[in-house]
Amino acid sequence: MDTNGYSKEGLHRCILVTGGAGFIGSHTVLQLLNEGYVVHVIDNLNNASEESLRRVRRLASPQFQHNLIFSLGDLCRKEDVEKVFSLAKFDAVIHFAGFKAVGESVEKPLKYYNNNLIGTLNLFDVMTRHGCKKMVFSSSTTVYGQPKVIPCVEDFQLAPINPYGRTKFFIEEIARDLQKADPEWRIILLRYFNPIGAHPSGQIGEDPKGIPTCLMPFIQQVVVGRQPVLNVYGNDYPTKDGTAVRDYIHVVDLADGHISALQKLFTTEDIGCRAYNLGTGHGTSVLELVAAFEKVSEKKIPIKICSRRPGDATAVYANTEKAEHELGWKAKYGIEEMCRDQWNWARQNPWGYNSP
Ligand code: UD1
Q: According to the model, what pLDDT value does residue 4 have?
């Protein structure tokens, strides 16, 4: 720690963050900066805004604000990746960039396979040629598909059930093959559960383009009046209140998990290619999340009970022991704090980064 209370862990290390302007990316970039890392972001701004990075810079400790560099670029254009690698020597890459809408991936599988796989292959290729062989990859609980038992443990057989999920699975497989072929690679696959919440400042948060498909951004839009009612997909599940159960995790905890993973990469020679769940280990139902948001916002959320959404699992939550033991990481925040910070972001930015 220095005299300002900041860890010097990252000093002089330079990290490339793909998709760093997005929801999870921007929160992670902020934490990286405050840990002393130099952070280079490449993002095509397809589903993100450069405004998030302007705010990240302002939120970062003044001594680190100049350590953030942004390049507009698309991983599918190899020349964009090459260009970024010609600007700096990276010690590691955190790879967030990718499309993530399940429904759209079912309708347009090629769009998903092209973007997510080609982009990642280009990145692996350029990294190899530049001798940068450390990666933290943004995987997802979606690789477990419909888990037969819960909580989900990392060594479950993987069985994604839609094209988006398969892109995450295929990238995991590619990473495992690559590391096996060249043991110099160190790769950590982080399987996120359901990230929600926002930075406590309310300055950065999730800002989906179009109508949100995920629960929390939809709740937020109902509360600020952008949507009239929340459709609750199914109240006949065999759960405590009949609605589906998920493992919601505060995005700040998730960002911390990336810092822990990065430190693990730098300190563990034989890490190989290893997967970790990032969740809280607790399940929350749709109605419980609605009630928690109503409590912190002091607003009534109108709901309409609908039939189940095809492909939805009954209950999914994480076993978090591996991340706790090996990464020394554990989620700190509960549902109330997630809702409080989401509401703080929502009321300051009802229209996301385009708010007046
Ligand atoms: C979502 C993502 C998935 C990602 C995972 C983990 C989608 C469609 N799915 O899945 O890609 O891997 O998080 O981050 O983007 N619900 C409602 N009403 C709504 C929206 C959702 O009742 O308007 C219910 C759903 O039926 C589900 C729960 O809320 O039971 C959570 O849904 P969602 O936020 O979409 O998360 P996942 O389905 O877990």
A: 47
* Ligand 1 atom closest to the CA of 243, numbered from 1: 30
| Contacts for 3 with CB less than 8 Å, ≥ 6 apart | none
Residue 215 C-alpha to ligand 1 middle, in angstroms? 6
Can you tell me which residue has the tokens 């479950």? 156
pLDDT for res 8 = 60
> What one-character DSSP code corresponds to residue 325?
I
Cα gap 111→104, rounded to integer Å: 9
The CB of 162 under 6 Å from ligand 1? The reply is no
Find the radius of gyration of the CA atoms of the chain.
Answer: 19
Is the pTM above the cut of 0.90? yes
> Where does residue 96 fall: left (phi above 0), alpha (psi -120 to 50 degrees), or beta otherwise?
alpha
Does the C-beta of 233 come closer than 6 Å to ligand 1?
A: yes
- Ligand 1 atom at minimal distance to the Cα of residue 219: 23
pLDDT value, residue 7? 54
Name which of 153, 135, 123, 53 is nearest 93 in CA terms: 135
Q: Whose CA is nearest to atom 38 of ligand 1?
A: 312
